[in-house]
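Now read the record:
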Amino acid sequence: MITQIRGVLREVGEEALILSVEPFEIEVLIPESARRQLQGRLGEMVSLHTVFDIEGNQMSSRMRPRLIGFLNPIELEFFEIFCSVDGVGVRKALRAMVRPVRDLARAIQDQDLTTLATFPGIGEATAERIVAKLRRKVGKFALIVDGREVAAAGGQANGQVDHAEPDVLRDTFAALLSVGNSESQARQMIDRVLAGSKRKYKTVVDMIDAIYQLER
């Protein structure tokens, strides 16, 4: 199993890129959101978190292996959960990930079928299935802050630094809900405190204190 690959970016196409990993050049399928971020980095060293997949089915005589890559572990984790929905395969999931994972997760958690149906390849019927299956599974992805996707994954990739342990984010979110804030209000509070500080929050108390100091 290939879980991570690092090489020189040679080419970026509509659905895949080519990495030079001497002595090979390897094609890796990528989501649209990653394509946009990488298209200006030709010739640079790029690291991708990957999952291996076989395209085809038992009725077909042709089975094609394919490597699928993401900029950080949290995107890969979301992709695997997303693909668990009936009618959402690898290609459809990658096309739908045209915006940050956070946006997709928040639309799912908020049961915003109208927004979900606007993502490429996702119609109304598929949006309903996605919400029904994933609404209670995407909470941590909805807490991601732009530019800090790895914060929810507890790691770092491509130069990004985490600002809170994953358990701290989840427990702070739960604490804000318990005192009467809506999910949207709780997310906005966490977004604001992370965006306004470079410190790393190691405990829920630290983050709650920072939130309320900012809200005063």
Observations:
- Confidence is low (pLDDT under 50) at residues 146-161.
